[in-house]
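Hi R.,

Here are the chain sequences for the assembly we discussed:
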Amino acid sequence: MPTVKLLDDHTASPEAKEVFDDIRSTRNTDYVNNAWRAQANNPAMLKRNWEKAKTIMGDTGEGSLDPITKEMIYLTVSIMNNCEYCIHSHTHFAREKGMTEKQYNEMLDIIGLATEGNRMMTAMHVPVDEKFQVKT
Amino acid sequence: MPTVKLLDDHTASPEAKEVFDDIRSTRNTDYVNNAWRAQANNPAMLKRNWEKAKTIMGDTGEGSLDPITKEMIYLTVSIMNNCEYCIHSHTHFAREKGMTEKQYNEMLDIIGLATEGNRMMTAMHVPVDEKFQVKT
Amino acid sequence: MPTVKLLDDHTASPEAKEVFDDIRSTRNTDYVNNAWRAQANNPAMLKRNWEKAKTIMGDTGEGSLDPITKEMIYLTVSIMNNCEYCIHSHTHFAREKGMTEKQYNEMLDIIGLATEGNRMMTAMHVPVDEKFQVKT
Amino acid sequence: MPTVKLLDDHTASPEAKEVFDDIRSTRNTDYVNNAWRAQANNPAMLKRNWEKAKTIMGDTGEGSLDPITKEMIYLTVSIMNNCEYCIHSHTHFAREKGMTEKQYNEMLDIIGLATEGNRMMTAMHVPVDEKFQVKT
Amino acid sequence: MPTVKLLDDHTASPEAKEVFDDIRSTRNTDYVNNAWRAQANNPAMLKRNWEKAKTIMGDTGEGSLDPITKEMIYLTVSIMNNCEYCIHSHTHFAREKGMTEKQYNEMLDIIGLATEGNRMMTAMHVPVDEKFQVKT
Amino acid sequence: MPTVKLLDDHTASPEAKEVFDDIRSTRNTDYVNNAWRAQANNPAMLKRNWEKAKTIMGDTGEGSLDPITKEMIYLTVSIMNNCEYCIHSHTHFAREKGMTEKQYNEMLDIIGLATEGNRMMTAMHVPVDEKFQVKT
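And here is the predicted structure of the full complex:
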């Protein structure tokens, strides 16, 4: 039970419909998932967020982060934000792009290690070592 | 101003001192950073967390995640938890292990994209598409 | 499946029943929603939180914040805390008090903008400009 | 001690310099605050986030949210995210745009009320009343 | 650099001054800490939050939670919320009321264990066992 | 719909099966709850987290924290992390170990008080009183 209607090709505005079509052709699929159908209630948001996602998550082919690493970072953020929708969709996308179960488990291990370590440092308010401070 | 004393070789217990020595030999350095000196007040915690960190963050050489990716996942968690100590130390470690500024920027781009997307899905309580649900 | 029973007029204590009655007469409705029925297990909490809500969210008629703005701030907090109950109830209350879909979308835009900006500032630990510091 | 250099007109790239100039002319000031100087290390992010901020926080003159309400929503998000930089800068911006101390106090009251209420609903996992569910 | 003035006996309103005096007599001290001096800018909030704190954190002498346990729960919340002020003040209060370093370490151990376990359950979206569901 | 299979005695690896058996004998029950069945997909994580839980949450009989207090701290963390699974399981465990409804209500009162107080201190960025700073 979302707080807004999930729009489709018939109920979305022409600007939103155009974004739906770009999602379809970019991803080479007929399927537009609920994330975009919800945002279609605010066509300017839909367009802005889709363009950003396309640019940032796309395979830039420029030697920086590979698609699996990108998805794991996205998934890590979603787990930390406790976003049910995003956990499911990006676990799916990461696997679809080739994340192995070994990589998934290792990612979970790091999340567990880091989140516990973070809390301990915060609880004891440990001061940052001088050597970790960037000289600017 | 931490809430506990930062122990050193002279003030730490023998069990804690042993962990300090393992940190030094594993990392090939004389330096034991504040994170461990604070946890030395609880030697069992110190040992448990160091062993875990050594296993999980170490270069396993087994073809799963590489050291830079591991550090970026750790850093992403630390940013999401708003842990000042961990943000500084793991930005340092990631760069030390070879993270380029281009990779750093791309990681930040994904964190920004994901954290905004997460909030929108949560705000509108968007239901998970059936196709994203794992068949178990 | 709540962790406590949702009490009603028959199962609540006399002190809790009194609060239920005040909710009904203040809001001019017969309906007491689940938030209060759950808190009725702790009548002192129920009374304290209802009095606080009545004072703070009520239309004070004194020229400060209007009821729609109040509800949008409440809803923003609920979205940031990822509170499913509160997101649904306060999206409902905000609309009931007159929040338009345009205002709702604009609120979501700001939440998205701010939450991403917040993370970037935290990730890079950007120092506060002197001009933003309050002189006290 | 940020994790990146805070760039200025001399060290920023031409694309970033162009954004600095647009900030200056849009805000009618010579001052470019640290938030933008940090993001200048990633000119594409700088441009994207500035354009978004300009569009969303600008006075659209279209009868939706007024500038003070917008700033209070931004500030509320920043408080919930515990972003020190953003709390200081947006408390400043909100006051600069006319937020009174009475409005500020009322906003804080609502944040306190909501964040406590959110936790109680989450702790007891209170189910959403049917009447709060949007019919879609 | 707080966002508001920290008021004292001379600058606070009479209502706020009255609360300061009650803090002094209840705690048997001359010292009013910054938490209350900041809230004195909103005397109604100051009074409400002080009364609540006095009731909830006071030694009720009724056989429920003892003062050290209460402080440890307060401190745990503060650590999870990453509230620097509250971490320092309530670590102080807990120790003042008799929390031993062994208890402090054990509390930190549990926080570390729980926060990691929480994330793993959230990451894998593990369903609640039927036996853990309250029959209502 | 978890993101991984919930393994059982037939589908778990021998290492995971061994942990299941230790859970059964330690807790004197036949029941292995879903938390462990999910982690069984990563046997090293399962073993590490079970050993840690057994050590930290076990009744050490050494005069530090009692089992009910431990469970209340675990539950408090879970509520702050908004972990649905952990809220249900540890509310169950705390009650099973003897937490009374009066203690439960008092714990909720403190969580409410603290989480609101935390936000107010963060919102106004109140500086830590010198007397709360640990001399190290």
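DSSP finds six helices and no strands in chain F. Chain F has a mean pLDDT of 95.

Let me know if anything looks off.

Best,
T.
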